[in-house]
Amino acid sequence: MNRRVKMSGVTDPGLRARKKARTRAELQRHALRLFRDRGFAATTADDIAAAADVSRSTFFRYFPTKEDVVLLDDVDPLYDAAFRAQPAGTPLLRALARSMRTAFASLDDEKRALEEVRMDLARTVPEIGAVLRERNTFGVDAVAALVGEAVGRPADDDDVVVFAGVVSGARLAAQALVRRDPDRAYIETFADVLEVLADGVPLADAPIVT
Amino acid sequence: MNRRVKMSGVTDPGLRARKKARTRAELQRHALRLFRDRGFAATTADDIAAAADVSRSTFFRYFPTKEDVVLLDDVDPLYDAAFRAQPAGTPLLRALARSMRTAFASLDDEKRALEEVRMDLARTVPEIGAVLRERNTFGVDAVAALVGEAVGRPADDDDVVVFAGVVSGARLAAQALVRRDPDRAYIETFADVLEVLADGVPLADAPIVT
DNA sequence: TCTTACTTGAGACTCAGTCTCAGTTCGGCG
DNA sequence: CGCCGAACTGAGACTGAGTCTCAAGTAAGA
Description:
2 copies of one chain form a homodimer. By secondary structure, the first copy, chain A, is mostly helical.
């Protein structure tokens, strides 16, 4: 029993793969806990490995850098999917705002808590923020790809890239706002900013006063 | 002769300070050269120190990290100054685009070359890009401060922060565009993007197709 | 059950970054 | 001019990230 079912359409993982997934998840779980409690810099790769009961070598086999451990994520694909599920005709910025809200709302409590720790670290620890910004669903390239597809233009079309830059900028703004007022919820703030932008860039035409 | 003139309004540096400035500049000069020729990762702090004929310790005394050496910059203050010099009444985005162009044009050839290497590294080497984005004149916080002052609003005003995010996003877009087509000049591209945005966010109202 | 391929732990190695200490050099003052 | 204190430098030890190699263990498949 518990044999790998090779014939069925969905290839069932098998013991080896299941073990790997479990180890990876364990490493992340302990890492995030330690980062939260002791701080990122004060947590060594050894600490994490020890907590997850594997060797340091193994830690780096699963995650190329200490930052990468924060990247592991079940949520980003959900944003993507939610966006693709938006009905045709929806204006882009609204569609993005909405898909963020629905994707985040669809998370169960455990995942949401995990996600909040991740976003907190992203705002707090510069190295992590940088990595996340580059490899996230909301990096310029990723948004450009997503949006280009949605409007039927190439991902390197100037307008598409500029639009993607604005969306990434909206995220930067949201992070800055939450940093200034930690009571704000990040996802909500991000979605709000996108909706503000749907009515035009604030201050775009504001003149300089002396 | 060559005595430090303490009485005159401008405090003349003195030997010590001059030496420091020279060492710092030398370190940067060699570092950028080595980064360009060998690559960032393949250049060790020892290499740079040796090239500039100082000890490794001294290198880290001048620059807290290897990335920081790329940050040293005479140009950013020029952008600031050029922006502040824009006539009252100029709309913000135009003012930013213009001040970038004039500041960059005011550089002599040597400085401009240096600046181009820096921007190239910023686009090419992720670590450097990240540091530059955070500590640059065009980071969200810096833009918010500059713009808040210009429109007479606090730097943590929501509109100001969102606007600053858009400007930072414009930079991200410009970097992405140059990455796709290295023949573009970065500064020009950045200014162009800002001017595009002055006419509204492209695709903002574009609907999703299918 | 036996072979093969993947996975792991141990440990050596390089390099970034921090810190301490001792020696040197500059600046200022008598 | 000569001396003292402060700033600067180089040497070297130390921690921790990240890479690599090798030997031992374990799942997969026949």
